[in-house]
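Throughout our pipeline, every protein is held as a single compact record rather than as scattered files. The record that follows is passed on verbatim for readers who wish to inspect the format.
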Amino acid sequence: MKYLQLLFTLILSTSLFSQDNKLKTYLDCRCDENFIKQETSFLEYVRDQDLADIVIFIRDDRNPTGSRSFEITIDGNNEYEGMTSSSMAVAYSNDTSSIARVKLLNKYKLALVPFLDKANYDLDLGVNSNYDEIEEYNDKWKNWVFELSGSYNGDKEESRKTNRYDIEFEIDKLTEDWRIGMELKRNETNRKFFSDDNEYKSTRKTTSFNGRVVRSISDHFSAGVFFGAYQNTYENIDFNRYLAPAIEYSFYPYKDVLSKEITLSYRIGAGKRNYIEKTIYGFKKQSLASQALSLNIRFRQKWGNISSNLDATQFLNDGSKKRFSWRSNLDIRVFEGLAVRLSGNVNLIREQYSQAAGNTSIEDLLLQQRQIATDYRTGFSVGLSYTFGSIYNSIINTRL
């Protein structure tokens, strides 16, 4: 086993052969779970610790010097009861997120060796697997996952009082061929402000149901349909329902999405709206059709990260009513400890169909109780950092 672990340390790779059942694994970490799971497809990941053969916790800590330490602990369940394994991965201050996650993955694989050996996995220096030919684990839920959550927040002092609650119910199913998701949300925020004998109130309510059904067509194409309904008092929407089919093309194969991604999608749809107050165009009810084109760019490489989104929407009822949005984040390591960070967003707004008619009161403006007319919205930030000195500091010290 020591010789085998030494090989893993040097080669940092795993391949599996002649295994009847994958190890059922529960993973709890604050890391790039999608990347970890994609690169360890020889494991069967489950969502409940009681269902797992092995339970993996990855705990991380950021040191004052900027380095990040990951402690990997693996404990066995069922027939692996009593077995344990651990490892430590360190990402230094000038490592990009891409380098950090590869370091974590390598130590993660090393910590798995005792369990893979007991499970009679055939370990080799190459990265190959015959699991494409093996029937998937029998899941009685058929990949469906349900989640119900809620929260309440209260904040009070002498001059103001705030109450907020959120409720959410989510249903998801994810397979190689299908991506299905539906969510129902309800949130309400009530604020009161006190000044002398005056009391000012602000109430915002949102209820929404959104769903999508997406089908994989090939390594580069997918198609789907989006649907839903919502109410939003801030946007003067009493009830809106919509249906929109869409198609997407990926310039890179979808399997590369974690490291590089360029996608172009087109969506066309129709909906009906009921407004709370009559709009600036004189509508209390309205039927609308629209089309949207979206370009999404994201790279996560050793030199840094880039993400950018371009969205253009046009209403078919009136071609002059449209919106253009651009959002971008850039995080580049220039050399060694020098990094540049840029972010910006631009929104050109020419389609505020739901804007309520009439003058906006000073209370509405200050309390942000209703949407205010605008033709644009922008934001920009820039940052520069330089780290120097010793890069070898993997000590964890959380004292005071």
Observations:
- Residues 245-351+369-400 form one domain.
- The CA atoms of residues 31 and 292 lie 33 Å apart.
- The first helix runs from residue 2 to 11.
- Residues 1-18, 125-131 have pLDDT under 50 and may be disordered.
